[in-house]
Structure prediction request, 637 residues.
Amino acid sequence: MDKQKELLNVKNLKQYFPIKGGFFGRTVNHVKAVDDVSFTVYEGETLSIVGESGCGKSTTGRAILRLDEPTSGSVEFDGTDLLSLNKKEMNQMRKNLQIIFQDPYASINPRHTVRQILTEAMEIQNVWPKEQRNDKVIELLETVGLGAHQADRLPHEFSGGQRQRIGIARALSVNPKLIIADEAVSALDVSIQAQVLNLLKKLQREFKLTYLFISHDLGVVRHISDRIIVMYLGKIVEIGDKKSLFENPKHPYTKSLLSAIPSTDVDKKKERIILKGDVPSPIDPPKGCRFHTRCPFATELCRTEAPELRSTDENNLDHQAACHHMEKFEAESLQPMA
Amino acid sequence: MMEPLHSMDNNQTSPSNSARSKRWNDIFYKLRTNKSAVIGGGLILFFIFVTIFGPLFTPYSPNTQDMVNKLQPPSSEHWLGTDNFGRDIFSRLIHGTGLTLIVGFSSVALGATVGVFLGIISGYYGKRTDSIIMRTMDVLLAFPGILLALAIVSVLGGSLVNVIIAVAISSIPIFARIVRSSTLSVKKLEYIDAMRALGASDRRIIFKHIFPNVTSPLIVQATLSIATAILSASGLSFLGLGAQPPTPEWGAMLSDGRNFLYNAPHVALFPGIAIVIVVLAFNILGDGLRDVFDPKTKD
Prediction:
């Protein structure tokens, strides 16, 4: 695989949400939702972020778009640091980065017709000349698999899948380069999920889109991604291309996640790694490796020292994990566990 | 759940108007079938009708004095009797209808405009802005409405315009609170985030996406507030701080009548009944509107 152009470069991104308390509403503590996350999205690829609820994957997406202002770090899009832009510059920049939300019922204004929703988006970013906007609306609707006759309907006249298509059309209406899909298919039926995922793939080819795909569903992620990031408690534990991550997971957390995917093969014996306990609170995350409280292989080193992301294979430097004991697992052939 | 049948034929109608008209058709249908809305609304329409056409048909001028016939009980000549200056009470009541409605409508319009503005700003921007605005509103809210209005009128001086201003100010906090809380819940919805992600300005988000979605509780509260406003205004006039004689304001008429309660109770009775009916009408309409706009809060 030849080196592609870096489209989005996230460096040391931190998102701490203050917890107010006491009589005068002082900040008593922070929820460390995203804690020092760095990654790169290459042009034209689909990078997925997976992890369980509360691991900071959606927060990462929102912080990149500055829907919540990140605490620190840098987000470079196509060479421009988004976090250093003022409000006006950022608003102009926004036509390049769009987002598709999870809940198709809450993500479109119930009082506006599809035509109003799409023309307003074009109006805000001033993307097409006024006279052409109506034609563009029809074109967009057809692109996402809706009909021209549905342009003047209200959101409540559509099904969940159709609404999600409207959300996709709205994101597309400003010609973005990068689309962040925040659990974009999680609220849909499985059959509709497949349709929408295929639509996203089709659009990616057609418009040369780059996706940052946020999901908790490994099946969906396996279907759509080129590369995958696994997050746990605000940190990246493993990053790698789809094939090597699914076939050769290095981090114990990734292994246990993958072992939880139901298999359709009845004859294949699977070893489940069942994690004990709950995810610790992101207010006061464990010292050292954040996973050590639940890791079946944790040692003293894990409890004191936080592991860095690193690679164990010189031929595949892009596949990295943050674990002290990767080599040991490999030597003892603990993997592949799945 | 009754669904209006006519919503179907609307699917054919052309562009952007259809959305709005469909919604309003739904609302009007529900209003027509809601008993309290029909009764309250009907009464108010009647009062508006009286305001416009009533003065053309009154048997006497509201301010013509007739000292020979003062304090006459109701008769065929003077339907509701005469007051202590021999003025026809029926004519005065009719001439005062418009005044009452205008005081109610304009003070609420004024109070609601300011309240909505403060409420949306407070809810949307949050943090410091929110604290400052809402604590100020709490201070205003700590005084009973009539007492606050009383204080404001004593500072500004007694006149009908000042009464409107005073009542408006005392109604600001309620609107600010209602709109703030609705704004907070609408602000959290994903489509507001979607608009921010598209680069929409705060002004666009507030006016095009938040305001239209907070109007339902607003309309209900405005209707109920008109009733309160009329009552407060009448109260202030009763205390001699509002309309000045010889203006045929109902509260002032009630006040004039109280000296003759023993020998001529009708002088105070009829303005009192008129106030009760108007206030009741607005309250009933408000309840009806609440059922239509906000079925969840129904008792």
